[in-house]
Amino acid sequence: MKIIIIISFLFISILLKGQSFGVIFTSGIYTIKDVTKEMDKEIRKGLNRKVITESFNVKTGDTLTYKIQHNTDGFAVKYTFNLIENEESYCDFEQYIFDCSPCSQKHLKDFIKLCEFRKKSDSVYVSNYFYKTEMVVSYKPGSKDCLVLTFKYVDLYKREYKKIYNNLPKLQEEN
Predict the structure, then answer these.
(1) The whole model's pTM is what?
(2) Which of 30, 114, 138, 169 could form a disulfide with 34 if both were Cys (CB 3.0 to 4.6 A apart)?
(3) Mean pLDDT across the stretch 15-44?
(4) Maximum pairwise Cα distance, the chain
(5) 16-29 as b/e, with b when 16 or more CB fall inside 10 Å?
(6) What pLDDT, in 10s, does the model give residues 56-87?
(7) CA end-to-end span of the chain, whole Å?
């Protein structure tokens, strides 16, 4: 009987697993075409698994915004493409605006783990060199619980960036 309960619990937890939007596009190598292709792929997977109930995107000038509604939460993702190189625009800014406190905390922990962020100050984190990204954690206007995660590309040479990153303490993983 215990085995059936454990197997049922594992099966249900797999089905309830939320859609992961764990790619950070601010590393200076993603164009609007790359971001759109990857986000559309993740959204299709979520729709097929019935984890995402609805989504849409809007492109205005150099800004691309996705609004995504999960079964349990909702959020918006905003990208800007101001980093110009070889006449091509690359993503330099990415922002997640959450509608739910527990889910925003979960996503924050996921991003910290994914990019090996280290804390620079109370609300500013720095990723490992692969992502070359600074994350600023703030609260959604009008809400003291829902987070806004803002990712910005850091344009520094490898030696400078690694010096800053290596001088910051590693974050303790919470269970």
Answers:
(1) 0.81
(2) 30
(3) 77
(4) 64
(5) eebbebeebbbbbe
(6) 999 999 999 999 998 778 899 999 998 887 78
(7) 28
